[in-house]
Amino acid sequence: MQGRPGAWIIHGVQRWVSLRCPAVPRKETMTNVRSSRWPLLAALTLVGLRAAAADPPSDPPCPAETPFVFSLEAAGGASAPGGNALELYLAPGETRRLEVTAYLETNPPGQTVTVDLCGLLGMSVAHEKGLLGIEELDLTSTEAGQRFFVGGRTVETEAAAGFVAGFPLCFVPSPHTFTGRMSIARAAYALESPFGPEDLGKDIETSLRFEAIPEGGRPGLESYVTVGGQSATPCLRELEVTFRVRADSELIRADANFDGKVDVSDPVTVLRGLFHGDARIRCSDAADSNDDGKLDISDAVYSFAYLFLGGPEPPAPFPRPGPDPTPDGLRCNEP
Ligand SMILES: [Ca+2]
Ligand SMILES: [Ca+2]
Ligand SMILES: [Ca+2]
Question: What residue ranges define each of the domains in the chain, with the CATH number in brackets?
């Protein structure tokens, strides 16, 4: 479909990226949506999704002359203003996964970039060795993986670790255009060793960076986009991660799934946990959003009202973690 230019670029990228990758596992799509017996759940979820869609994260602008952006986004934590910083509250001994998606975006977001000849995309994402390890690298189920031949692998040397990905950037129909953003890679990270009681109260800061990882005497792959024979470093939005180590007894009110932030997933977790039995309420004490000592549908309603309808904010501890000031029979961090 791309004719001769596409063929030589595909050949070139195959040789150049030197992708000695093992088979990358294909992730199953998590769309187990059953017909709901709970119209309220569906209605509240829709309200939440619409509100979330209307409130995108506000990233600092990239230079106007840069048509593409590489960005990293994480799930399961509290994002600071700017959208590229993450705070994760962990209990000692907890080894939660950090799931990160790497994107190619146009700049500014609604801009259409015209590609008159196939280009190349190379991406290298480094992490702090000794603190994090990659548990899973998924390229094939990403939007890029569904459209192109995408190669990639994890990299680990004595000094550094991360992953690389690359593919020919050929869009159809011709002239090739691209608007918006496209997921390139998903990586799941885990702590190399869990934090212990001696780490209580500490903040451990690290980052995921678009950075070449020298390997075997070679300089490593840079992160770049080449279009029409012009190669450029995209605007890079890297991810700052802070692990805050809290005691088991510390919680954030309304954080039902115990992921360190309060968002639409928390009341949805409460409703699904109470009525469908297919979601795990990891911290019943936190899920008790109105702090009346009972966990029921009124807690989900309270959270939705706070998040989307201007209702009162959850009682303490909120938004910073702390102990429940009104002891009750509810527990936290349940297995
Ligand atoms: Ca949460
Ligand atoms: Ca309650
Ligand atoms: Ca309480």
Answer: 3-20+57-245 (2.60.40.680), 250-335 (1.10.1330.10)
